[in-house]
Specification:
- By secondary structure, the chain is α/β, with parallel strands linked by helices.
- The chain has a single domain, classed as Alpha/Beta hydrolase fold, catalytic domain (Rossmann fold), CATH 3.40.50.
- Helix content is about 40%, strand content about 15%.
- The chain has 11 helices and 8 strands.
- Strands 1-2-4-3-5-6-7-8 form an 8-stranded mixed sheet, with helices on both faces.
- β1 and β2 form a beta hairpin.
């Protein structure tokens, strides 16, 4: 059986919870989760990869079991998430790694990659967007908040934090929803209910505009460094559209782009297919 450890790293006084498995002599995969999840989303993928890779999956600041300092002490921006994760890799001794990025993990991971391109051996983007054509109309309420950051527009986004909305994100676009374990959206709902976490998430909704502003910089990084890239996409994602996956080929002509007949949280239904694609892709060689 695969041995997985559950640990906390002290990152300059900031506690980062993470899951780790596999032999450190093997190529490392750094798995970065998205909204509203945690490293728990990788519970099925890690055992499928751990015999071939050293796998590390942290919880982002303000997510899962990682620290959530008060907003008065820590600004919840994607720049700050990336700074903590970048230092996390140094604290636990990761010198070179492939990035697996999903949702919020993409703009976080791409910032880390731009800061130290020499450390990133490859990128696996599972519904991790870096192109404007990948944004669906589902972003319209959040974009209104970017354009007019009023309290009314902020409060309107609380609907995205409800148990029903979180469950919908897991089930939308999935042909057979009996394949979706309630553990994922159930745990996310419990984490979101922690004190002040709703405000943390609303702050990140507002700051997501900074990611779109950085899309040209992310794309310039791709062109300059040509990291091997596998884009494997739930094609029925209500937030990040298939054209966002295809767009990687503009800057990375050798990108491997694949689509799965599922939704946003593709690992809930296609963990084996994604693991097989990663093994075939061979990141870190």
């Amino acid at each position: 059986m695969t041995r997985i450890t559950y640990q906390t790293a002290d990152v300059d006084g900031f506690e980062v919870f993470y899951r780790e498995s596999g032999d450190r002599s093997n190529p490392t995969l750094l798995l970065l989760h998205g909204f509203p999840s945690s490293s728990h989303m990788y519970r099925d993928l890690i055992p499928l990869l751990a015999e071939r890779f050293h796998v590390v999956a942290p919880d982002l600041p303000g997510f899962g079991l990682s620290a959530q300092p008060p907003r008065a002490q820590f600004a919840y921006t994607f720049d700050n998430l990336a700074k903590v994760i970048g230092r996390f890799t140094e604290v636990i001794g990761l010198e070179r790694y492939a990035l697996y990025v999903f949702d919020y993990g993409a703009p976080t991971g791409f910032r880390v990659a731009m800061a130290h391109p020499e450390r990133v051996s490859a990128i696996i983007s599972q519904n991790g967007n870096a192109y404007e054509e990948g944004l669906s109309e589902g972003w319209n309420p959040i974009q209104r908040y970017w354009q007019a950051p009023s309290d009314a527009n902020r409060q309107a986004l609380r609907e995205l934090l409800t148990p029903a909305s979180i469950r919908w994100q897991y089930e939308h676009g999935v042909g057979d929803t009996t394949q979706i374990s309630p553990d994922g959206y159930g745990l996310d709902t419990l984490y979101i209910a922690r004190p002040e976490r709703d405000e943390v998430q609303l702050d990140l909704f507002l700051d997501y505009a900074s990611n779109v502003e950085l899309y040209p910089a992310f794309q310039a990084y791709f062109r300059a460094h040509q990291p091997p890239l596998l884009a494997i996409w739930g094609k029925n994602d209500p937030f990040f559209l298939p054209p966002g996956a295809e767009a990687y080929k503009r800057d990375l002509p050798n990108a491997d782009v694949r689509f799965l007949d599922t939704g946003h949280f593709a690992l809930e239904t296609h963990a084996r297919e994604i693991a097989d694609a990663i093994i075939e892709f061979s990141p870190g060689k």
